[in-house]
Fold this protein.
Amino acid sequence: MHAVVVYESMYGNTHLIADAICAGLGAACEARVVPVAEASPALLADAGLVVVGGPTHVHGLSRASSRKAAVEAASKPVSPLKIEPHALDSGLREWFESLGKYPVKAAAFDTRMHAPAALTGRASKAIARELRAHGFDLVAQPESFLVTKQDKLEPYEASRAREWGAALAAAVAPRASAAT
């Protein structure tokens, strides 16, 4: 089976989680990580599993205005933040607007501030809703991976993402039982 992890990332945390999920998937299948700007319809058509994730901005999916604000925040002289290469490209919201129907298994994730979801929101819920609307078959509940107020991944989130990737692979392509 071939899996694709599509991500949008501003400061690199979602990219790191996408890489970790891919590593978890890689134990059971061929997996590839792709920024949303490079996620073509042909790439999705060949996949047996599509995992999609992005950062939580203003309680949900990013918008052009929230991406611009993130870049401006990182541009301040005292900011330790580094912008990802595709940060100002179209995001997941625009990507979903361009998609057709895909009868492919899928899962959704996000990165968000470490606080109650009622306060931060969860982009993964909107991602899951969009995936279902485009014909994808969700194989897991949307998952959030947490970042600190200093915009760094919480400890163990990358390893938790690898484990989640492995669990997704097992759910989609369970290993054959050993013959007795």
About this structure: The radius of gyration is 16 Å. Residues 176-180 have pLDDT under 50 and may be disordered. Residues 157-172 form the longest helix (16 residues). The domain at 2-172 is CATH 3.40.50.360 (Rossmann fold).
